[in-house]
Fold this sequence. Notes:
- The chain is α+β, with helices and mostly antiparallel strands.
- The protein has 2 domains: 154 residues, FAD/NAD(P)-binding domain (3-Layer(bba) Sandwich), CATH 3.50.50; 168 residues, Succinate dehydrogenase/fumarate reductase flavoprotein, catalytic domain (Flavocytochrome C3, Chain A, domain 1, Alpha-Beta Complex).
- 25% of the residues lie in helices and 19% in strands.
- It is built from 9 helices and 18 strands.
- The strands form 6 sheets. A 4-stranded mixed sheet has the order 5-15-7-8.
- β2 and β3 form a beta hairpin.
- α7 packs across α8.
- The longest helix has 28 residues.
- The chain starts with 35 loop residues before the first helix and ends in a 5-residue tail after the last helix.
- Bound molecules: flavin-adenine dinucleotide.
- Flavin-adenine dinucleotide binds next to β15 and α9.
Amino acid sequence: MDVGIPGEFAPEYPELSGSEAFGGYRSVDGVMGDGHLHRALLRALADRGIPIRYDSRAVDLVTDQHAAAVVGVRTEDGAVLLARGGVILATGGLEADAELVREHLGLEDASIWGSPACTGDGLRMAQRIGADLWHTDNMMAVTGITPPGARHGLFAMMLRRRGYIWADTNGERFVNETAPAGHGQALIDGQYRLKPDRPTWVVFDEATRRAGPISPDASVYPVGWSVVMDGYAWSADNLAEITAGRVLRAHTIDELADAMGVPAPALGESVAAYNADCAAGLDDRFGRAAATLDPLAEGPFHAFLSKPVLAWTSGGPRHDEYARVLRTSQEPLAGLYAAGGVSSTYSWANDGGFHIADAIVFGRIAGEHAAVRARQQSAATGAGVH
Length: 386
Ligand SMILES: Cc1cc2nc3c(=O)[nH]c(=O)nc-3n(C[C@H](O)[C@H](O)[C@H](O)COP(=O)(O)OP(=O)(O)OC[C@H]3O[C@@H](n4cnc5c(N)ncnc54)[C@H](O)[C@@H]3O)c2cc1C
C-alpha cells in the first residue's frame, strides 16, 4: 500500500467481474482522519434519542427458554439487556485476541494496527450458541514495526528513497519489495500472495535513513492506534528510533548481520546481488522496477525486523443477506444479526473502503430486519413498539 492522495486508489483486483463498480477511496473533503463518519453516526444516535452504554462489555447472548431465539445480551457486570427485535453483533474482528489469532490465522506474536477492543467477542458468543463460521483465516496485514513492549504496530514504509531490501531470517532476499500489496495481497509471479507473509528484515543504507522517516506521522497518514490514539510520532530522521534500539545500526553489512542474528555471508550476498541489479538497472530475480533500484551504497547500514501488523480480520459468524446469523444447519439463529468486522462479507479480495461499507450496509439491513421482527412480535402479543 502506498500513501497517495485520498481518493486516488484504483481497483485492486481489476480482473474480477464487478471491479468496475469500485468508485475510489474517498475521504470527506479529501481529508483523512478527521472523524467525520464518527460524528455523523453519533448525530444519528442523538437525533433518535438512542443512548450509548460505554464500559459495558457483552459477554453472553441470552436466549429464550427453548434456546430457539436470542432475546438479549449479558454484560460483564452481570446486567441483562433485553432486545425487542434482536441483537446485532458489531463487535469488530478477532485481531486483538492472541488465542484466536493463533487458532484462526496461525500467527504468533502478531501486533495490531487498530483497536485493542477487537477481541473476537462476537465470534465467541455466537459460536457458543451454535453459529456457523466463515472465512476465519482471512486477515489484512501491513509491513510494520512494533515499539518494544508495546502491542500496537506502526505502518512502516520507505517514503522517499528506495535504497532498501527485504531479507528473510536467513538473510536472503525473497520478493519484489515494492510489489504493490494493496490490502494485504500482492500479485507475485502471476499469483496473489499475502504480503507481508512472514517476519522480514528491512535493511537500508544511510542515504535512505537521511531521506525521511520510514514510518509516517499523523500529518502524513493519520491512521492506526499508535499514531492516532497513542500519538506516536516517528522521528523525521529516524534517529530517535535508532537510539531507542528499535532500528539496528552498524558500520558494515557483516556487523549488521551479526546484530540481526542472520548469517553474514547470506546477507552480504543478498546486498551485493541487489547492488549489482541496481547497477544493471534490472532485477531479473524478483522483477523490481528499474526506477526503484537504489543501491545500498553508503554506510552505516540499518535494519529492523518487521512482523505482519494485523489491520483487521474478516471472518466470523456466517450470516445471510438479511445479516441473520446462521446455524451450522444454515437455518437463521432467530434474533441474532452480524454486521461489519465481526463477520465481513468480504474475503481475501477487498478494496479500500469495503470494510466500513460492510459495517454500514449490513448494519442497516440488520436494523431494518430486526425492526420488522419487533413489530411482528408486538402485533402478536398486542404490545406497542417504542
Ligand atoms: C488502521 C486501519 C485502517 C483502516 N482503514 C479503513 C479504510 O480506510 N476503509 C475501510 O473501509 N475500512 C478501514 N479499516 C477497517 C475498518 O476500520 C473496520 O472494518 C470497521 O471499523 C469495522 O467497523 P465495526 O463497527 O464492525 O467494528 P469496529 O469499528 O472494530 O468497532 C467494534 C466496536 O465493538 C466494541 N466491542 C468489542 N467487543 C465488545 C463487547 N463484547 N461488548 C461491547 N462492545 C464491544 C469495540 O469496543 C468497538 O467499539 C481500517 C482498519 C484499521 C485498523
